[in-house]
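In the design runs reported in the main text, the only information available to the sequence generator was the tokenized backbone. The following block is the verbatim input for one such run; it is reproduced so that readers can re-run the procedure and compare outputs position by position.
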């Protein structure tokens, strides 16, 4: 039995930020609980090794969805961080904030005070942008953000040029004034090493006397008394323990873990809890609902010139890359290899980008398990504003039993149409003159895939999760809202959720940057600090979006 002011459940992308900010005041006694352990593995630190921790049980919850009815009943892999740093320690390190309109959309969904202009100061606060600060970028924050190896491989620039030739704009900074267009991609890497929240927010403050970090701890429920959170119960091995709080319990266990813990605690949909054998403590129907994720597939081409990463996959080449990285944290080991990208609109009438591209100068699966035998390149493409919705559902009162995860990918007809656009627009881009000296035939989908029916069948079999589950404890005031605009759980005192589960809708981009922003903003709310003054900035948008696709 022990007592703290704040108990944070989950030392991930949000939890490490909260631990840093809340313990900065020495009068606050803070407990940080994490099921996983150390993040000191070389495979976590080395950016090019990104596929290893993501697919390792020691570092990630290896969740799988239920058979997805609109994806030919495929069970989709859904890894989530189970290590200090959480998913920021296992992800692809891609730094995308999302479009400004994504956050204005949050406010329209009832998340008062979460529009883009209010969120921007917290994006800036979190980062050190390698080109220095400006109205959109920060230079004093914990996260290191750069472009890796500055697009030394000519294929990166060919992709940007091809987009320009196809009639799209070029943007120097998609996290700045203009997201739409083709340009360099940004990654959370500092001095050649993964810039996770554990490394940047937690490591420098671990010695604070008022901060207790406990690893190997599986939280089994939030303790409640008269609609107030008084602490948590947790398990380390076979030993059960409790920790009590004077102020607040904050769930930062992620889009799968946070709704699961709420449901285990008796907070959620009455029917779900009854079916799982859990006593209802507080009815909140939206817990676990509204689940959203991004899908993507790889568009792969053979390459005429032997300049791709497929030539670096033999053991000797890997040893050289590893040695250079170990010696001076440079070379191919210091990048995630996603160094150019694009954000475009799928059709006329779409106001801001809903398709995202990651370009890779290799033809290889994201998990590293299978590569094209010759030289090739690929672009990851996905329709990023899905209308399909799923749920995270408690199956058992036993905390060790994972919840049921059902995304209902491609349930909505607009999502199917969006992926048809991905196929046709990508082919047009890669067919531009910029790729004439490199392009040597389509590996995947294959030139025989042409009709709507053929594209749909290919997509159902080829798409994979982009590993961006979110929105399962949505913020707002409607019937599915779980937390209010201050991140407090509706109807329960002293309990908050702060992670990507509280997004009302999924942004157009990778989710680590907005998750960290949410934690920065929530920390100020918890501490009663005034929000930074928001200085309105310009946001570029297509003037003829209603009538033109580009």
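Verbatim output:
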């Amino acid at each position: 039995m022990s007592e703290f002011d704040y108990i944070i459940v989950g030392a991930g992308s949000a939890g490490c930020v909260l631990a840093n900010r809340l313990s900065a005041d020495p009068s606050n006694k803070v407990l940080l609980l994490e099921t996983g352990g150390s993040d000191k593995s070389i495979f976590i630190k080395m950016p090019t090794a990104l596929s290893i921790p993501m697919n390792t049980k020691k570092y990630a919850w290896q969740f799988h969805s239920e058979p997805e009815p609109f994806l030919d009943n495929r069970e989709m892999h859904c890894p989530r961080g189970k290590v200090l740093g959480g998913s920021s320690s296992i992800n692809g390190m891609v730094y995308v904030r999302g479009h400004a309109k994504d956050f204005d959309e949050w406010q329209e969904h009832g998340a008062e005070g979460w529009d883009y202009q209010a969120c921007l100061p917290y994006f800036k606060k979190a980062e050190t942008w390698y080109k220095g600060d400006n109205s959109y970028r920060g230079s004093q924050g914990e996260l290191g953000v750069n472009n890796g190896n500055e697009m030394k491989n000519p294929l990166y620039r060919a992709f940007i040029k091809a987009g320009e030739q196809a009639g799209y704009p070029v943007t120097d900074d998609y996290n700045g004034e203009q997201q739409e267009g083709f340009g360099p991609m940004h990654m959370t890497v500092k001095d050649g090493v993964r810039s996770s929240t554990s490394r940047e927010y937690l490591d420098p403050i671990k010695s604070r006397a008022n901060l207790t970090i406990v690893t190997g701890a599986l939280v089994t429920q939030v303790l409640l008394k008269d609609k107030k959170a008084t602490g948590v119960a947790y398990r380390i091995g076979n030993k059960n323990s409790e920790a009590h709080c004077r102020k607040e319990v904050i769930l930062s266990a992620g889009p799968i873990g946070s709704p699961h813990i709420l449901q285990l605690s008796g907070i959620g949909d009455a029917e779900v809890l009854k079916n799982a054998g859990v006593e209802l403590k507080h009815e909140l129907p939206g817990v676990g609902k509204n689940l959203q994720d991004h899908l993507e597939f790889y568009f792969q081409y053979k390459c005429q010139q032997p300049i791709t990463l497929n030539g670096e996959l033999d053991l000797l080449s890997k040893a050289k890359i590893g040695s250079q990285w170990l010696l001076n944290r440079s070379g191919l080991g210091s990048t995630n290899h996603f160094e150019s990208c694009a954000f475009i609109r799928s059709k006329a009438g779409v106001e801001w980008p809903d398709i995202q591209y990651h370009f890779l100068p290799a033809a290889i699966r994201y998990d590293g398990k299978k590569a094209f035998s010759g030289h090739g390149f690929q672009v990851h493409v996905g329709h990023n504003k899905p209308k399909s919705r799923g749920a995270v559902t408690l199956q058992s009162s036993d905390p060790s039993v994972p919840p049921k995860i059902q995304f209902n990918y491609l349930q909505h007809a607009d999502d199917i149409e969006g992926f048809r656009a991905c196929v046709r627009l990508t082919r047009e881009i890669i067919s531009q003159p910029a790729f004439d000296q490199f392009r040597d035939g389509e590996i995947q989908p294959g030139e025989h895939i042409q009709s709507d029916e053929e594209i749909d069948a290919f997509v159902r079999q080829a798409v994979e999760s982009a590993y961006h589950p979110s929105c399962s404890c949505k913020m707002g005031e409607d019937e599915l809202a779980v937390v209010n605009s201050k991140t407090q759980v509706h109807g329960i005192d002293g309990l908050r959720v702060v992670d990507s589960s509280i997004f009302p809708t999924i942004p157009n981009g990778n989710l680590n940057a907005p998750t960290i922003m949410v934690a920065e903003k929530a920390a100020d709310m918890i501490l009663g600090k005034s929000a930074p003054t928001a200085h309105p900035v310009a946001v570029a948008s297509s003037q003829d979006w209603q009538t033109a696709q580009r």
